[in-house]
Each structure stands twice: as C-alpha cells, then as structure tokens.
Write a structure and sequence with these properties.
Number of strands: 4
Shape: globular
Order of helices and strands: EEHEHHHEH
Radius of gyration: 13 Å
Oligomer: single chain
Number of domains: 1
Largest sheet: 4 strands, parallel
C-alpha cells in the first residue's frame, strides 16, 4: 500500500496533514531557516541535475521537455527508491521553493512516484 504523496511550497509552512516533509530542491531555499523549514529530510539527490535545472529555468514553454528529461534522470535513482520506501510507511509531502506551483520538480516527482499534488 502506498500512502499519499503531496507537494507544497516551503514558504507555506508546516501543517499537521503534511506527514513526512522532504525538501526536493538541490539548493537551500532563500530566506528560510532550518527551524522554519520544519523538514524531516532533505534529498538533494532526487532534485534535477544542475544542468537540467539551469536549462529549465522555470520556463513554462520548456515544461514538457523538462518533464521528459527529469523522468529520465529519475529512472533508477537510489533517492527515488528511498522515497518510494517512505511512501509505503506514511504520507509524504514533497517540499519545494519554486514560485510556480504548476511547473516545478516536485510536481514531476509526485507524478513519477504515482502520487497526488
């Protein structure tokens, strides 16, 4: 059985319904202290590669190609296997810093894991 996978901006703060909070950005979010982040885990290795992140640059016109390339990076990733194992035990919220709530790595990762947004 898989528990729900949700996504949430780190700036929205923690909620009791979040379950396990996992930061899925490669870089630490600006203006957030570790205490304010209220994270359970930071999985840098599940984030898009630096090259892919820079290429995407949060441009909606590159979304489809970004998703395709990111899926390729996620295939066989040990960090994805770790996340999948966690979703077998409890609900997980993938936390991200991007301003765009519809075009970011957490959305793709939740899809890849078979979760909800």
């Amino acid at each position: 059985m898989l528990f729900p996978v949700h996504t949430k901006r780190i700036y929205d703060g923690r909620a009791e319904s979040d379950g396990l909070r996992v930061l899925v950005d490669r870089l630490w979010p600006r203006g957030i202290t570790k205490a304010d982040a209220a994270l359970d885990l930071w999985l840098k290795d599940v984030a898009p590669s630096t090259e892919l992140r820079r290429w995407f640059d949060h441009r909606a016109d590159r979304w489809a190609e970004f998703r395709k390339r990111y899926y390729q990076e996620l295939a066989g990733s040990p960090a994805v296997r770790q996340l999948r194992a966690l979703t077998c035990k409890q609900s997980v919220t993938l936390v991200y810093a991007a301003k765009d709530r519809e075009h970011n790595e957490a959305i793709v990762l939740a899809e890849f894991l078979g979760g909800e947004n």
